[in-house]
Amino acid sequence: MPIRETRWPVGTPCWADLSVPDLTAATEFYGSVLGWSFVDTGEQYGHYHIAQTKGKAAAAIGPIMQEGQPCAWTIYLASDDADGTAKLVTENGGHVVAGPMDIEGTGRMLVAVDPTGAAFGVWQATGTIGLEIYNEPGALVWEDARLGDPAAGKRFYAAVFGYSYQPVEGAPDDYETFSVGGETAGGMGGLMGGPQGSPSHWLPYFSVPDVDTAVAAAERGAGTVAMPAENTPFGRIAMLVDPFGATFSLHGQLGE
């Protein structure tokens, strides 16, 4: 079981969370689709619910904090200096929309938008590293940055986080994996798939034991299918939209 207890390397996707207008409905939906249990962090932290797999932190769901806030998954990238990262974001054509701010006893964070319009978070760990479990059913297994201008996005993330890129055989020409310190950490490319008219965004992939069973659970829970389950060279994949409009993907073993 891939467990992590130390800080994630700078630039690595290290956390994912979602803000929703109805926490009860959201935890019921994701609990049925991904098998998560939840821990309410309490009023002090705005009833931010930590999603757990095998007792380890896998993601989080919290309440919308301000009117007009979109329901979308946010991927957080690790930093050892959130303030320094904020400066690099603005110097390279992005902008910071929240923070940097301290989260008492856990870390320092910000939310930013890259030059293509994709929102992402930055997490500087102190007491909480972010993901404690990964590459397991019920945990984050991959992330894509799907960007309206992938060339501009790649330049931005290379400048801010030091990413290097590698082409992927069989993928669209503009899709490449990105690496942190020589370790592949996700993918980046154009606006392939997903709901029509989607803006630039980061897309989380969560591992499940059986993609088709998870898709059926999502449909029973008022989710919709943006991309039906299909076998790919990288596993069986489906893309879903939750009842609040947030898009995410499922990944599992190849189906028959």
TrEMBL record:
Signal peptide: none
InterPro entries: Anthracycline_SecMetBiosynth, Glyas_Bleomycin-R_OHBP_Dase, Glyas_Fos-R_dOase_dom, VOC_core
One Pfam family this sequence matches: Glyoxalase
Ranges for domain VOC: 12-125, 138-253
PANTHER family given in the database record: GB|AAF24581.1, GLYOXALASE-RELATED
Record-given protein name: VOC family protein
Classification of source organism: Bacteria, Bacillati, Actinomycetota, Actinomycetes, Pseudonocardiales
